[in-house]
Amino acid sequence: MTGGDGGDAGVLTTDRALVVRSWDAWVAAATGVPEAVALGRPLAELFPEVEPRGLLPRLRRVVDEGTVEVLAPAFHQYLIPCPPREPAAHFARMQQHVTLSPLRAGAEIVGVTVAIRDVTARRERERRVADALRSPDEATRLGAVEALAAAEASADVLVDAFDDASWRVRQAAVDAVGRHRGEEVVEVLARVLRDQHRDLSVLNATLSALAASGEEVLPALLELLASPDADLRVYVALALGLRGDLRAVPALMGALDDADANVRFHALEALGRLRAREAAPAVAAVAESGDFSLAFPALDALAAIGDETVTPRILPLLDDDLLRSAAVDALGRLGGEEVVAPLAALLARGDVPPAEPAGALSAIHARYQEGFGDGEVIAALAGATAPAEAARRLASALAPASSADRPALARVLGWLAADADDGADEALVRALSDPGARAAAADGLARRGARAAEALLAGLGALDEDALPAAALALGRIGAPAAVPALLGLLDSAPHAAVAVAGALGAIGDQRAFEPLVALLGDPQAAVRQAAVGALSSIGHPDLRERVSALLDSPIPAVRESAARIAAYFGYGECLDRLLELCRDPDDGVRRAAVEHLVSLDDPRVAGVLAEALRDGTGAGRAAAARALARLAPDDAAPLLAIALADADLWVRYYAARSAGATGLPSLAPALDRAARGDPAVPVRIAALQALAAAGAAEAVPAALALAEDAEPDVRLAALAVLGASDEPEALAVLAGALRDDDGEARRAALDALEGCAAAALADEVAAAASAASRDPETARAAAFALLRGASATSVGRLAALAAEPGVREACVEALARVPVERPELLSGVLREGGSAAREAVLEAVAHGRTAAAVRLAAGVVDDPSPAVRRAAQHALCRLDLRAAAGRLDDA
Amino acid sequence: MREGTGGYGAAPATRGAPALNLLRDLIVQRTGVWYDDAKRELLEERVGELMAARGLPSLLDYYYLLRYDPDADAVWRELMDRLAVPETYFWRQPEQFEALANEVVPRHLAAHPGRPLRIWSAACCSGEEPLSIAMALEEKGWFDRLPIEIVGSDASPALVARAQAGLYGDRSLRALSPARRARWFAREGERWRVDPTLHARVRWATANLLDEAEAGPLAAADVVFLRNVLIYFSDDAIRRVARTLAARMPRDGWLFLGASESLMRLATDFTMDEVGSAFAYVRKPAPSVPAEAAAPRLRAAGTPRVERR
Question: What is the pTM of this model?
Fold first, then answer.
């Protein structure tokens, strides 16, 4: 048989009763049925197998509902049986890709258009390649999968590799199926899941492919969730969780009542994975149910869901010996002030490993600190409520603890009130030797104050050398003069700790440190010299002036340099002449320091010196002069900056541009504009552009528009930052385009750039970018804060509305918590008019408030029609009440 | 002015200083070493010292210096020295040296008689690893039986200089038996000097593993030791290094990694194999993608047979 027209596709049409009304030459040739025979006959009569194969309902759906149906060859092979037009080793029938679409007369559906494409050749090629999937050689099988993926082979061919012995081959097949486009992949995966879920390799691969697929798999999975096969229901629940589709939540909540415990288990896990807030009360009920096997996953799911309002329901589980650890962990991930006292109480219980409540408290502290900057609330509350015995138990647990547990133990121990006999200070000192716990131990020692200093001094000799800088910093923070001799000793015995020691001596401010610090002014390391300069400036010894004056003449260049810095910092007038001389010092470092700091002294000769310095033989010297120009009187600086902007050295030009930005001189705008657009050095272009923006120059936005497409990414970012502060239409257009960019970094850059009016004007685009980035925490956060900076009712409303998306919620709440207290109407507006998810998010943010206004906001919605909002309001009031009791709430 | 990615002004929403993030990203691109959030302070401290030495007022300026200065190579070398994590010692993971001496070398000799055996210690730090290799081979007498070239390289010029000096502290020798220490080292003040003959067995070089021009020629080695460095690398950097090695190493080459390291979770051209009592990586065999062979000429259903006369 030959094709009528030589092509590979044909068309037939039917009426509403599926009676053939047209039959083109291709179809006639392919089927061997002439047009005259086919016309007027029902399709099912012409090809009786269409009905038992279940294809008629698909045709009827097109007629009845107007849908477009695709019969993929991977699943159906063909609609109309006919032989292949070319010989095929793998197929006895022509393989057909069939599209069924409604045939319309005006608005009325009068029949079906059936478009048939012969894909036998392609399928045959796929099969030949797929034969290699049976090769004993892994590399061959892997190559076959890769070739099939590259050829975009049908999903049913690729899934044959799901049971391959090699994980690499299976992974390649999963990746390829996951990228596959077309409804057929859903049918194929659902069929594999239904029929082969007992093969663990196939199951794992299928679940992975379902999670990754971009096609609409939810309906098929929901259908399988009703299967009588409990194992299948288990895996479907798992798949629904992996898919991340919130539309599955109601079905998964229904599965919490499944007859099979395994199904309930996986439904819990899936709800946690989906972060389904609406399921939190139901999941909490499972945790409270007393069903030991399900309470654990329920607690884990509650923590993953992140609904803080359930913590009161978890607290009673702290009394359950079996569930306590899981409850502590969940509270650590969810809780706030309201759980601190109960967790702190556990620190003193002999039957509770102290690392568990310490870990939870430390986690809450970290979340409060990183998200809202108020970690101190947790530290203070723990310190105030922990039983007396807690410190002793934590101190005993610290040394034998694992390296994973020790940081939290040290951190919490540091919060607790100091007692002479609890051994806490000694334990914290020993913990300094653990790199992972060092920062927490040092912080704890500093908090515990003078008594800790004694322990630290006693234990100093036994510490690892790596711990000495942290020990010095802690002593500095404590500020105990008794530490000075030991710190001075470290300057000799532990030179690597000199920077930290100098800082500590400066913080303590004891005069005994004066001479040793002066001796450091000539240290070979610049960081040490700078630390010594800083410390001496803090100590303010009465002899400093005289010594510095003398040191300006030291034969050691490093000493002269340090002395110049101090003399300029304090403005020693009697040193002025010498400082002016040092601007011509033969040593580069001395010259730079003198030039850069001389400007602190208000003297008419300074401008002349800087002008001379701009002719220095070294680029570094001229750069120092350019930096100094930022602090010169603008009228004096302007001509010198113009000279520096034309210097041959890029760093001179760079710092000149920075200084020009600081002075804001309009006369420099043309030079800056030229530099921004045309300087060969990227840092100079950026600095010049930013200087224009800082000066509010008219050239800023046009230059930024020109640079928004620059080849250098850093220049583009700087341009976006300038445009982000503008509300000019052209700037907004560029920003809007960047927000839609396929490149995630470009989108983030645009989000970070948005300020004020621009952020408000583009609130919709920002919200869209955030929605698209629900699995990208960095972009989500950037979007949330961009909306915050919009500071308008619209942008804050969008911000609160975004919180309905689990992937963005955390960032939204953190941003909402930063709405200025002077703008309460931005939040009250959401509480009045926003959706329930938005109102919940606002209340969660309000719970971190520090003013009585926060209390009023929360109190205003305790009668909200939404139960979830009422819970959130009550929870917020509970936290704010604790804050008020601790004296941390202002009356504003 | 708000500090956006430009770095001057008030901070945006990103956690951590934006300039430090830029610097961190640049470091991982250039060196492969990733400073996660737990190590941000450490990075800032180390970079701060270098900034002070150059009189740079901000991290952003230091980033620009590294990225755009025409003479940035010197700045990078200084940074690599400062960031180097010199924690190594002699005879670390000895089963690999034993596998080399007992299995790999004999196989090479049998397969390639007369061809020099090239060994590259690719992150040699202060030299303990290539010298341990030399010890293992010397103790088996291999240097007398075939030509062997050992190259020890590191990205840090300061560490290579220490290796070239050949002087070590007690900590470096802690895993050596007294006999081995006595055979290969002599006390010199507070430290130990390695036997000069042994020391001369190793050629020293500076090479950044991510720089194809530097690492490529060295990667054409029969045996590569790349131990306890990939743990600091990003996944992308590991892939890049693996590609360089796969492109240059001979088909029967061996790659030894550290005990806590693995290439198995990434798609590379290497697969693990057992050699003696150790594990190492070998090149995967080249995949043979099935060509579309001509389909057998089958009769399509309904096609009339043509009778041959």
Answer: 0.80
